[in-house]
Amino acid sequence: MKKAYLASIIGTVIEWFDFYIYAVVASLVINKAFFSGASPAAGTLAAFATFAAGYLARPIGGIVFGWLGDRIGRKQILTVTLVLMGVASFGTGVLPTYEQIGITAPVILVILRIIQGIGVGGEYGGAVLMMAEHGHRSRFRGFLTSLTSASAAVGFLLASGTMAIIAAVTTTQQFETWGWRIPFIASIFLLVFGFWLRRNIDESPVFLATKEDDRTVRHPLLEIFRYYPRELIVSFALPIGTAATYSLVLVFAVAYGKQFGFSSGELLAMTTAAQAVYLPMLIGSGFISDLVGRRIPITVGAVGVAAWGFAFWPLLGSGSWWLAFLGFVGCFACIAGMYGPLAGFLSELFPPEVGYSGVSFGYQVSFAIAGGLTPVVAEASIGGTDNWLPVAVMMVMAGACTAAGVVLSRGLGRQNLTAVSSSEARTPSGK
User: Fold this and answer.
1) Domains of the chain (ranges plus CATH)?
2) Which of 69, 170, 293, 308 lies at a CB distance of 3.0 to 4.6 Å from 356, suitable for a disulfide?
3) DSSP one-letter code for 203
4) Burial environment of residue 168 by CB neighbours within 10 A (0 to 12, 13 to 18, 19 or more)
């Protein structure tokens, strides 16, 4: 069990490191390296569009790997998704720029981002279920599954921290020419390590029992649409607040903050330090959800996001490092309330025979729309101005969607993951 936990956590860290190093450099380098023929504003918008491409591909990964994960198992699929992510990241690191090979460069970049999106789209559901199902008899599934969410945050922390260090020890020209490539290329070594880890773990005992009792279904996603429509809507609505706020704070805000005198290194240092504060809050929120229920911390986080947006953007626009840092910490505190219990909640919404598809589909569609498109919409809305009101309103809308998901979820959840025999299992016919 401990080996499975360790492999899930480390593998998730590696995958999200690969996915988020692109997010870190999207507004700092990608626009110049691959869209140098465009104006600065158009280049930034194009960079955010390639970032969105990775998010928009995530539902494809959720559908394909969700189906495979429910049919053949969690372990093998998690290994495949890790390989996809690592190969695409390495490819990005060695990809020639627009000046070297012209329009071919951004085309290949988009393809690599789509591959990354497909890979990470299959990662979340499997990693969450490996934690929840290996700990199926534990009273602290919220805490255990929050470690998966924390692993994703660690991946971003390592990505932003690595880029912050490289930016600090290189000149601006060196960073934009070759410095940003170092983490992408180095990810090949993480891929080998993660592959070794995941190849040596045991399959989920809950899935094995489901397979032994012949409770696997041929088309799990269709089964979900037929028997669990409300659960599916909840799985889509709950992550919206987290997805939109995360993208605004960690992608758009980095570009927005530069107009107030912050350097790239300072903004990366802020987001890295704020992420370090965020991690214990995230795990603590998952643990609290085991004591008071999942809905309370999620609701508090959703309301907090809606309110804090009107403080965060003025704090970032103040030009003060400490006030801006306070703004980032406040956003992460709200995200922690929503995101910490989310994995546990989603893992309990669906029975094991459709669990991988159920957890993956709604979550990935939510992140594709709210996470991938948010920076693009934000940039198009305020495009280089200091008018922060539209993005604050976007945070209000995102928090409201999550709160609506909480209201709709009443009476749902707490699927019995300890039901490892057909006589105990909840099936569509017995619903």
Assistant:
1) 2-221+228-430 (1.20.1250.20)
2) 69
3) P
4) middle
Give the span between the Cα atoms of 29 and 239, in whole angstroms: 29
CA angle 356, 400, 256 (to 5 degrees): 95
For the entire predicted model, the pTM comes to 0.79
Among residues 341, 216, 193, which one has the least CA distance to residue 281?
A: 341
Asked if residue 149 lies in contact with residue 339, where contact means CB atoms within 8 angstroms, the answer is: yes
**Torsion angle in degrees (nearest 10) through CA of 271, 277, 278, 279:** 120
d(CA 154, CA 340): 13
Helix (H, G, I), strand (E, B) or coil at 373: coil
Measure the CA–CA gap between 105 and 109, rounded to whole angstroms: 6
Helical H segments across 340-388, by residue range: 342-347, 355-366, 374-382
Task: Report the candidate in 259, 239, 236 with the shortest Cα–Cα distance to residue 247.
Answer: 239
Cα separation, 314 vs 389, whole angstroms: 10
Q: What is the pLDDT along the chain (431 residues), one digit of tens a residue?
A: 676 677 777 777 876 777 677 777 776 777 777 877 666 667 777 777 777 788 788 889 889 988 888 888 888 888 888 888 888 889 988 999 888 888 888 889 889 889 988 888 888 888 888 777 776 677 777 888 888 888 877 887 888 778 878 888 888 788 888 888 888 898 888 788 878 877 777 777 777 787 777 777 788 888 899 988 999 999 999 999 999 998 898 878 877 888 888 887 788 788 888 888 999 999 999 999 989 988 999 999 999 999 999 999 999 988 899 999 999 999 999 999 999 999 888 888 888 888 888 888 888 899 888 887 888 888 888 866 678 899 999 999 999 999 999 999 887 755 544 344 333 434 343 33
Tally of CB atoms within 10 A around 225:
11
3-state secondary structure of 372: coil
Residue given tokens 């390592």 in the structure block? 158
Q: Single out the residue of 272, 267, 273, 265 nearest to residue 252, CA to CA.
A: 267
